[in-house]
Design a protein that fits this description.
With 424 residues, the protein is α+β, with helices and mostly antiparallel strands. The chain has twelve helices and 20 strands. A hairpin with a 2-residue loop joins strand 13 and strand 14. Helix 2 runs parallel beside helix 9, helix 9 packs antiparallel against helix 10 and helix 11 packs across helix 12. Bound molecules: flavin-adenine dinucleotide. The site of flavin-adenine dinucleotide has 32 residues, from helix 2, strand 3, strand 12 and helix 9.
Length: 424
Amino acid sequence: MAAKRFRVAGIGTTRKDSIAATSQMHDAAVVGTGPSGLVAALALAHVGADAVVIGPAPSRDGPIETRTAALLTSSVDLLKSLQVWERLANEAAPLKAIRIVDASRSPLRAPDITFEASEVGLDAFGYNIANTALVAALYARAQETLPSVIEASVTGIACDAEKARLSLSAGAPVAARLVAGADGRRSICRTSAGIGVSERRYDQSALAASFRHTLPHNNVSIELHREHGSVTTVPLPDPHASSLIWVGTQAEIEQLAQATDADFIAALGERLGDLLGAVSDPGAKAAFPVAGLTADRLAARRTALLGEAAHILPPIGAQGLNLGFRDAGALADCVADALAQGEDPGGAETLAAYAEARRLDVMTRTLGVDLLSRSLLTSLPPVQAARGIVLHGLNVLAPLKRAVMRIGLTPPTALPRLMRPRAG
Ligand SMILES: Cc1cc2nc3c(=O)[nH]c(=O)nc-3n(C[C@H](O)[C@H](O)[C@H](O)COP(=O)(O)OP(=O)(O)OC[C@H]3O[C@@H](n4cnc5c(N)ncnc54)[C@H](O)[C@@H]3O)c2cc1C
């Protein structure tokens, strides 16, 4: 879509810009400038919708972001379709294999298992990339492509039969036919649409950081499970550096987050043993709650929810943001269909089509990740034995192992159009 190059910023907006912003009815207002919202805004613009995005600009002053995202190939294909991937390719590390190690002290320990991307005919399962690099590249592309990138918070949303009207913390209100709510776990879009949530507690936290190691990672991600927690290393572009997700009890993670670098490295070295050689140079560390949240509905009152506004999963199996990207792709499909048929992009039919397109994928991933998290946490012998038997079975039955890998990689419903691999 041709970029209309003007920009409405909440602070410093001129009076002329303000009038333009209020008098214009947009097809969609995307709320939230995290990765899900920015991808949704770009995808909507790509299919010809007049979409604006509202949220804070990425800044160094916000909460520290140490997470990386392991993006599956379908998410990378979406970034390619949106012409964002070329800005990121040099900062992303391919994930060629995933090794799962049961380091519990249980006599029913599961065998080690390695899933190779080549077993399912892929060069890589996906790519690992720092969230800060991802958001910076998406935001830069949004500034080039969208008619407005509005630096403000949404403070209220009112809907009528024709439109939604969004009040902002700064600048003129915005009118749009569809609100794409990608405003994270405390979503104002969700509340305004009258959508409740179910929450699941895990009494755990996750620490995200990065570190260096003397042995090369060979583009293998390692998931090391122990009683009450796990340590996952994910390759970074430097062969001797990986990102880290350490899941443990809240007390353990709090202690690790406050530990000196020397104490942290000692604890990490003890946990990883000789898997990656000697470890050093921990980067900044940040703790995140391990939470489960599912919106009771994915759409209502001109509002479609996506990303963490719609679902939060424990950080196991790299599903969270990949699910958010599939939400964005599906919403773009539904809006494209509505516009092609001259229908309302925020009308009841479009919202129903979106909710139906996402229902099964969100439900199966939520259940799968919840089950996996709880099975890894339990020390109940029958569950440990079942886990061991399943992993042993996968080790000896190649077709079963391939089937499990495909389930992890592919949603149960067709991929959104922008996420399908393109020829060449
Ligand atoms: C330790 C850890 C590791 C993870 N690793 C992976 C992984 O490897 N792969 C993967 O797929 N997923 C992973 N995830 C999940 C992934 O990080 C999240 O799914 C993703 O960051 C959520 O993005 P989002 O855009 O939906 O939400 P957020 O990043 O929370 O963005 C919400 C945005 O909305 C804005 N906002 C909020 N309120 C308003 C308002 N009123 N008005 C305007 N804007 C507003 C916020 O400022 C923010 O910019 C991990 C999670 C954790 C905790």
